[in-house]
């Protein structure tokens, strides 16, 4: 990548970029002249059906130029057509998404526990109530036992919600079992309240894509869209691979042709505008170009698709290959390329300091969604309390009616 400007006469001159400084070092050691060129289609070289190369690869093959200093991926077809120097940079292929946003739950009072915990919570009401029935009335017949099991399950639900009393359990073995159940109830209730309070204090963020496998599953399920640059080696890779994750991404690109980026498009503008979008690019390209928008607005996982070497491409038979390799080896050993990349990214970040000054704050103003969640939370609590009240009234009337029947039977006898 070379940062270029246009002179008054229309010619280009460089002001920064790793490849520009590498070109300056080479020109100071070897007697050659160079000219800065800007590719009209940003395609370094593509092999057509007739076996001819386009772009800079075509210029090397025809002998129009002897050397090209550009961040050109060393594909198999290119290595057969031209010579490449010792790599001055090992770049990685990554996918970039927008930074995770604050997660907004439709039912926030359910969020503290996952579905599996809620299922075990229901079992903690059903199974202990069976144990209580067996400890209290082991010789009851089936009809009465089921009725008592339903009653005991309701009592445990009332106790779990902080209502009712433990005084109804008189037998020692039942009370000993209830002590264990109450201990587990306290752990569940305190865990639920503490997690719910933490959600209110610290906003929950969305879970970003962390691995290539997660990207494949997200694209297959339709949760994320995928894009990359037209005509690049990445596009060739996803289009020509018939297995694995690249086949999935290639099928997605072919079914969504509007997602393909033209050379003049910025993937970062597209990612920020379309939140559920992942873009395939090199890590060095991201570090340089994303600094204009602010690195904190994007997410790049540690996992990647692999690495590829970046070297200087030369026409076949050029006599300076070994000398250039020795010089590049000394440059890489000194760490000049890495330092220059850090400097260029820092310089671009300072230039666009307004966009990349500080990470986005998690604090925001109160919205209608927050009020809706609070109403849902209060409504769920009110509904649970009302159900408990209705249940207690029904049980009380049922027990009173039973006592009245027993009194009438005694009077009859």
UniProtKB/TrEMBL annotation:
InterPro entries: Glu/Gly-bd (IPR019594), Insect_Ionotropic_Sensory_Rcpt (IPR052192), Iontro_rcpt_C (IPR001320). It is a multi-pass membrane protein. One of its GO terms (cellular component) is plasma membrane. The keyword Transmembrane applies. The chain crosses the membrane at residues 115-135, 179-202, 373-395. It holds the Pfam family Lig_chan. Residues 116-380 form the Ionotropic glutamate receptor C-terminal domain. GO terms for biological process: detection of stimulus involved in sensory perception. Keywords: Cell membrane, Glycoprotein, Ion channel, Ion transport, Ligand-gated ion channel, Membrane, Receptor, Transmembrane, Transmembrane helix, Transport. Residues 15-99 form the Ionotropic glutamate receptor L-glutamate and glycine-binding domain. It is found in: Cell membrane. One of its GO terms (molecular function) is ligand-gated monoatomic ion channel activity. Belongs to the glutamate-gated ion channel (TC 1.A.10.1) family. This is Uncharacterized protein. The lineage of its organism: Eukaryota, Metazoa, Ecdysozoa, Arthropoda, Chelicerata.
